[in-house]
Amino acid sequence: MALPEGHPLADGRTASSPLVRAARGDRPETLPVWFMRQAGRSLPEYRASRAGVEMLDACLDPALAAEITLQPVRRHGVDAAVFFSDIVIPVLLAGVGVRIVPGRGPVLDEPVRTPADVMALRPIDPEALAPISEAVAIVARELGDKPVIGFGGAPYTLASYLVEGGPSKDQLRTRALMRTDPHTWSQLLNWCADVTGAFLQAQVRAGASVVQLFDSWAGSLSRDDYIRRVAPHSQRAFSWLRGLEVPRIHFGLGMGEMLDALPKIGADVIGIDWRLPLDEANRRLGGTMPLQGNIDAAFLTAPWPLVERHVRDVVERGSEAPAHIVNLGHGVPPETDPDVLSRIVDLVHDL
Ligand code: CP3
After folding, report:
1. Residues marked as binding?
2. Domain that holds residue 314
3. Is the pLDDT of residue 244 over 90?
4. pTM
5. Kindly report the CA angle at 244 between 278 and 329, in degrees rounded to 5?
6. Which of 88, 100, 132 to mutate to test the pocket of ligand 1 (most atoms within 8 A of CB)?
7. Is residue 12 part of a domain?
8. Is 249 inside any structural domain?
9. CA 7 → CA 3, 80, 212, 216, distances in Å?
10. Residue 340 lies in a domain
11. How do strand 98-101 and strand 324-328 relate by DSSP bridges?
12. What is the DSSP letter of 69?
């Protein structure tokens, strides 16, 4: 499968954007910057758009999802839009009952824990992805030469929501399933890889020029378990993009001990959380990979001179890597003053 004709990366619109160039290992004149969770509660225009609309309903309304995706690009001048959706959307589209409970996160109607539960999971009907494709197409058209980033949840993070039935601190039930029933485990992770893979593929075909896989909970695993029991499934999720030559970012939290496993799953850029300085991450990766990150969100409420010093430090450490995409070390906290984000964008572009 190749990128469709008229795709913004195939027809050259986004190919020389700073984000795509950096993701391919180049050093463009301006450093690209975007923020995980840039579309969301920190923006008053987001809160207005979402008033009276459930989170997952908003994700499935193409005009609304496109509008919310574009809001932070208009406001902050970031180098990319990240598609407004959620990692559980493909789970929902595959027929599994899930809601997002405000202040908590995704909650399943029924957890998926037994071999029978896993056997009952069905693939996504490709037609169910139509609202996603439609929304991404609107955004790509509006943005012109600025890329849209598509994303999906990594199989382990998705599986943890399915098994736990909701957010959990330590993913204990999930890891217990991995230990006690390796066959059911690999079936469940394959299912998660395939729904996420189909979701990623739909976004890319509709016009996303870059993708990011989020493994928010992988840090709860040992290095060995990650490499043996999880990484092959993340690789399977990326394999849905075979032939679709868009750069792939992998972002996980707390993965400092297993960074070197990430290039092997097919990632082109490694997202680093706030725990590990970028120069050290680069050293652990042997100086071979473009990095993304890793402004500590804990600075966002500090007086500007402290923010500025920290951002300069991140950029300086990032300069040791072959290429750098500036981002936070995790998502924008809802209480962030959006003006601070706009100032960070201006600062990064001036550096
Ligand atoms: O701007 C963006 O980054 C794009 C959109 C995006 C959302 N969720 C929108 C969202 C992305 C990339 C995600 C990914 C996501 N969702 C992850 C992986 C990244 C991470 O943060 O680790 C995870 C674990 C989820 C699951 C999820 N969805 C959680 C934990 C929550 C927060 C619940 C809460 O109220 O605090 C959500 C809801 C969610 N997803 C919101 C947004 C903007 C908040 C919804 C609201 O406005 O109430």
Report:
1. 37-41, 86, 161, 216, 330
2. 18-350
3. yes
4. 0.96
5. 20
6. 100
7. no
8. yes
9. 6, 16, 18, 29
10. yes
11. unpaired
12. H
User: 273, 254 in Cβ contact below 8 A?
Assistant: yes
Cα maximum dimension of the chain: 56
Q: What is the pLDDT of residue 50?
A: 96
Assess whether 161 carries a catalytic annotation: yes
- In single-letter form, the type of residue at position 174 comes to T
Beta bridge partners of 270: 250, 291
pLDDT tens-place string over residues 312-325: 999 999 999 999 99
Binding residues for substrate: 37-41, 86, 161, 216, 330
- CB distance 248 to 196 below 8 Å: no
CATH number of the domain encompassing residue 129: 3.20.20.210
Evaluate whether residue 117 is within a structural domain.
yes
In eight-state DSSP terms, residue 230 is I
The token duo for 81 is 């839009």
To the nearest whole number, what is the mean pLDDT of the chain?
A: 97
Residue 202 exposed, middle or buried by CB count within 10 Å (0-12, 13-18, 19+): buried
Q: At which residue do the structure tokens 């500025």 appear?
A: 308
- Whether 283 is a known active-site residue: answer no
Cβ atoms of residues 294 and 272 within 8 Å: yes
Residue closest by Cα to atom 33 of ligand 1: 105
Distance separating alpha carbons of residues 183 and 175, to the nearest angstrom: 13
What are 311's two structure tokens? 């951002």
Terminal-residue alpha carbon distance, the chain: 39
- Is 337 annotated in the active site? no
Please choose, from the candidates 100, 130, 144, 125, the residue with its C-alpha nearest in 3D space to the C-alpha of residue 12: 144
Cα separation, 295 vs 322, in Å, equals: 18
Distance from the alpha carbon of residue 332 to the mean position of ligand 1, in angstroms: 10
Asked if 311 and 347 count as a contact pair (C-beta separation under 8 A), the reply is yes
Q: How many domains does the chain have?
A: 1
